[in-house]
Design a protein that fits this description.
Layout lengths: L1 H12 L1 H21 L10 H16 L3 E5 L15 E6 L8 E2 L14 E7 L8 H11 E11 L17 H7 L6 E13 L16 E12 L33 H6 L9
Parallel strand pairs: 1-2, 1-4, 2-3, 4-5
Antiparallel strand pairs: 5-7, 6-7
Helix pairs in contact: 1-2
Length: 270
């Protein structure tokens, strides 16, 4: 199979292109092997602990109404117990999806002050307007209820072209605060990594020295109804011509050298 793929690339792109690709792949694999020498088990990473704390606290209270956002591909429903209601909400129909709809219009699907806990894993980077999403979550969440969000400060583009944002702790402070009706009660940046540029640039020569993070988890409590009077007529579908992809897009499996050059669909052309 590998030989056939290699031969196919040589026929399509030429021998020189194939050799350059092979060099990149070999280098990246060698870097990955070296990284294992200093890596640690992710089981007790801060982001894993933060999520476990949220699950355990939710289960401890019992009898809660829980809303999971974006559960179609991977749901964490099995981790929760003792709830009175559990709803999976997604933009597309599929496994684990009870209600299909747009998170930016969450309050059109559910009553106000209905849920005790709302959570999502690897969803908010795919929301065109995250500030609007939190406003909508505030509407359907009870005062005193919790919202848990797991997303990425750094991660390769995926589910293109519906990949809009990367988040930091400071970014969440701008989204979850008293004016938007929340207070942050727990957070963690985790899954550490180093960033190694694949270009020669003097301004980037020390970039690999700093630690970056692949995931950030934040738990916040609703303290009041949002004080933000947000009017947002723009629709996410006006930004991109396709609906959120049911499967991986072609740009995620495109030619490696094209991706390294940042051309065309490597950037997720709408």
């Amino acid at each position: 199979m590998l030989f056939e793929k290699s031969l196919g690339m040589i026929r399509r792109k030429g021998l020189n292109h194939f050799l350059r690709t092979a060099r990149y792949v070999a280098t990246i694999k060698a870097m990955s092997l070296l990284g294992r020498l200093i890596s640690h088990d992710a089981k007790n990473d801060g982001v894993k602990v933060c999520f476990r704390n949220f699950v355990e606290e939710t289960n401890r209270k019992g009898g809660l109404r829980i809303l999971e956002l974006g559960p179609r591909n991977i749901s964490h429903r099995h981790l929760f117990s003792g709830y009175s209601e559990y709803i999976g909400f997604d933009i597309n129909p599929g496994n684990n999806v009870d209600v299909v709809g747009d998170i930016h219009r969450l309050s059109q699907y559910f009553p106000a002050n209905h849920f005790d806990a709302v959570y999502s894993v690897s969803v908010f980077e795919h929301l065109a307007f995250p500030w609007l999403a939190f406003t909508e979550i505030n509407k359907v969440l009870k005062t005193g209820g919790t919202v848990f969000t797991s997303t990425h400060p750094l991660f390769p583009p995926h589910a293109l072209p519906w990949d809009f944002w990367r988040f930091t702790r400071s970014g969440f402070a701008g989204l979850l605060n008293r004016e938007t009706g929340f207070e942050i009660i727990d957070w963690a940046e985790g899954l550490p990594c180093v960033t190694v540029p694949l270009v020669r640039d003097v301004e980037l020569k020390l970039l690999h020295v700093g630690i970056s993070y692949l995931q950030i988890n934040v738990t916040a409590r609703k303290i009041v109804n949002s004080q933000v009077n947000l009017q947002w007529a723009l629709d996410a579908t006006s930004l991109v011509s396709k609906t959120y992809p049911m499967e991986n897009s072609e740009s995620e499996t495109m030619d490696l050298l094209e991706a390294l050059g940042g051309r065309g669909t490597a950037k997720g052309k709408p």
